[in-house]
Amino acid sequence: MLQTRNVRRQIVERVLKGIPIRTHFAISLKNAMDSMALSCEANSTILNLRTTSDESIVEQASFEIKNELDEFEKDLSFLKFIQSDDVYNVEQFVEVRLHLIIFF
After folding, report:
1. What gap in Å lies between CA 70 and CA 43, rounded to an integer?
2. Structural domains for the chain
3. Whole-angstrom Cα distance, residue 83 to residue 87?
4. Which residues form the Trehalose-6-phosphate phosphatase helical bundle domain (predicted)?
5. CA 17, 23, 29, 32: dihedral to nearest 10 degrees?
6. CA 64 to chain centre
7. Which has the closest alpha carbon to 15: 104, 98, 102, 103?
8. I need a surface site. Which of 11, 17, 19, 28 has the fewest CB within 10 A?
9. pLDDT given for residue 61 in this prediction
10. With 90 as the cut, is the pLDDT of residue 88 above it?
């Protein structure tokens, strides 16, 4: 999750500085999302992880990762929006971001 946070931060920094967004950002986020989704139980968003490397112990920790997957979808939608042909998309993002900063 730390790596995806860093990718998100780099995306926002580039947008605010007016630097073009490279395709590798979307590829990284999509790969992370797909990897998490494929690690879940079939037809669910439950991720089961062994709690030890000892093969004889069957204890597992289960995590509901629907929220994380939804956040990846939002990130990918944002990238699609920010790279669209709408000439005001960056201005809309900055305006919303400023309102959030003032609000919090």
Report:
1. 16
2. 2-96 (1.20.58)
3. 10
4. 1-95
5. -150
6. 16
7. 98
8. 17
9. 92
10. no
